[in-house]
């Protein structure tokens, strides 16, 4: 079997070349596990995996999880495969897809262990836009000055679906908020996540809506600055898709976003690997209300 791994950038990303008939081999799976921890994002160029092969690959790497079963586009043809698309025939509520134009971590507003990894394959591409950007949250923490690390160490962050889609709709209506709350939770997560293996990463994204114990403006300003820090060019890998590409990333240490597109024909198939670590918990109503009230 021929299997090669090439770095995409020094601090993030790797390109794995292997015949798809060997995607499920022990050597491939062990290589993926090892490189995913070090590189954060791995690309299999033009692999052209079927849903069945993608699910089998997902299952070889861990337990399968589906946290979007209630969202249009999930399980539409194959169980546990979510079709990411703006096609109105498949997705009658595009909020969640439009929200992916902004930095995020998958599943962060769900009351369960944070998904370990996301697998995405390109089935149909848009004529323009549609590249996916990945930012290394481990490296973003490691490169902070030691004094700033100490200042951030014990801060807690409120994450909401409302914040994630606020750039899409502005302030959501009460009806929209009620719908979002039925699909997700308001979660309190650490700003600095100490993982079970001892490594530390920032935990950021547009869904971060405030910092516990800080006035709203102060907390959001800090979160914005840290998000910009984590998205500095040396820590970001941009993947320009080719049809058939398969990409997997460490969802516990990488945030991502898609370059905006309007083409309703673009279709990506997503599967998800369950995590075992649950860094946060459901936020109290009082803390959420306090953050919204404090200017």
From TrEMBL:
<dbReference type="InterPro" id="IPR003819">
    <property type="entry name" value="TauD/TfdA-like"/>
</dbReference>
<feature type="domain" description="TauD/TfdA-like">
    <location>
        <begin position="5"/>
        <end position="272"/>
    </location>
</feature>
<keyword id="KW-0408">Iron</keyword>
<dbReference type="GO" id="GO:0051213">
    <property type="term" value="F:dioxygenase activity"/>
</dbReference>
<dbReference type="Pfam" id="PF02668">
    <property type="entry name" value="TauD"/>
</dbReference>
<dbReference type="InterPro" id="IPR042098">
    <property type="entry name" value="TauD-like_sf"/>
</dbReference>
<keyword id="KW-0560">Oxidoreductase</keyword>
<comment type="similarity">
    <text>Belongs to the TfdA dioxygenase family.</text>
</comment>
<protein>
    <submittedName>
        <fullName>TauD/TfdA dioxygenase family protein</fullName>
    </submittedName>
</protein>
<dbReference type="InterPro" id="IPR051178">
    <property type="entry name" value="TfdA_dioxygenase"/>
</dbReference>
<keyword id="KW-0223">Dioxygenase</keyword>
<keyword id="KW-0479">Metal-binding</keyword>
